[in-house]
Amino acid sequence: MSSALQPLQLAKTFVGAKELGRMLVDCCTDSDGRAVDRARAWCEMTDISYFRLSPQFSPEVLLDEIEDAVLVNMLWETQIYVYEQREQIQHLARWLLDANCSGSAPL
């Protein structure tokens, strides 16, 4: 390969790695989607309790968000989500308390 093409190839590799990192962060922080569906299905198949508490925000909120209006809206939407999911949260709390008292996690 020509030495003139090596910097170009290096730049393409760097851009590809950066994009892969962005996709990984998006996948890990997604509140829904294929990864979440697969995790839920796997737990259901193996008879393991599955809890995921991730509110979906109307605008996508970046991990490094600093705008007060966006953060206040995110807090408000989270409060609404917690209220709407109160039964699931209470179920999780009971499950955790039972696991803690018995010394092992219930299935």
Give a brief outline of the structure.
The protein is built from 4 helices and no strands.
Descriptive overview:
By secondary structure, the chain is mostly helical. The chain has a domain at 52-107. Helix content is 66%, strand content 0%. The chain contains 4 helices and no strands. It has helices at residues 5-29, 34-45, 68-84, 86-102. The relative contact order is 0.08.
Indicate the radius of gyration in whole angstroms.
21 Å
Distance between the termini: 58 Å
Unreliable residue stretches: none
Supply the number of helical segments: 4
Total beta strand runs:
0
Indicate the overall shape.
flat
Helix-strand sequence: HHHH
Tell me about the largest β-sheet: none
Structural class by sheet pairing and helices: mainly alpha
* Rounded average pLDDT: 82
> Helix content range of the residues, please?
55-70%
Q: Percent of residues in beta strands?
A: under 5%
Fold topology:
Blueprint: H1 5-29, H2 34-45, H3 68-84, H4 86-102
Offer a few descriptive terms.
4 helices; mainly alpha; 107 residues
